[in-house]
Amino acid sequence: MQIIDVHVHLNYYNNRNQGQDIPSLQNRLEFLLANMRTYNIDYSLILTSYIVNSNRPPTSDIIKIVNKNKISNKVGIVASYTISNNDFNNLTKYKTWIKNGIIKGIKIYCGYEYYYPNDKRYQPIYDLCIEYKIPVMIHTGDTYSPKGKIKYSHPLNVDEIAVDNPNLNIVICHLGNPWILDCQEVIYKNKNVYADISGLVEGNFNKYNQRWYGVRINEMLEYIGKPHRLLFGSDWPISNMNSYLNFVENLKLDNESIEFLMGKNAQKIFHT
Fold this sequence. Notes:
Blueprint: E1 4-8, H1 25-38, E2 43-47, H2 59-69, E3 75-80, H3 91-99, E4 103-108, H4 123-132, E5 136-139, H5 157-164, E6 170-173, H6 180-189, E7 193-196, H7 207-224, E8 230-231, H8 241-249, H9 255-270
Parallel strand pairs: 1-2, 2-3, 3-4, 4-5, 5-6, 6-7, 7-8
Helix pairs in contact: 6-7
């Protein structure tokens, strides 16, 4: 069984430690690959950020370093798109990235940016994803930054996009947490909607949140039915890969459900 982590980053999040040197992008990539080897992750999707600074490299830099290390068999890239920092003229750049075979999807950061996913300025991105048969990933639920505005990131907002774009595969990131029940209904109703389980905890699961999230994911799988449309994702390095793998093991799923969660659903929509 191939294990695919659909939600990792090469961002550096320890900037609270003033005076600490920021690891190079190469070092961050090597740390990711080391984690993947240690925990038997076969393939990961690196999501780029909605902002660019010394801690958060642009998509172009991620593409360059993946090509330099010749590891496209180990990692793919999901390119961020922001209304604030892009215009329609940049769509040519995204088309080129997709055609090179490394870009596997596009992510928008609703909540971090103060736009609903039905903002008409996102439609060219949805059209591009439909044209090239790649998914769009949409941030939903709580935001890592306290400056996020969560009215923009409620998972119910995804329903309108799914209905208006039936040929668009959509990934609800983070199960819409804490609105997991609403996320559940959006997935059940719309067969073109998936969700990843990433970023439910910062660091490691403990016995309390493991039990709480475990109950809700099992309820979600019962409600959606088979084949389900959940994806394994960790949100590494914010969340620990090994802790996430242990969390999934404790869900006590049948073999078919595990295979869809850990790889088959990702293979289907990201063409990995």
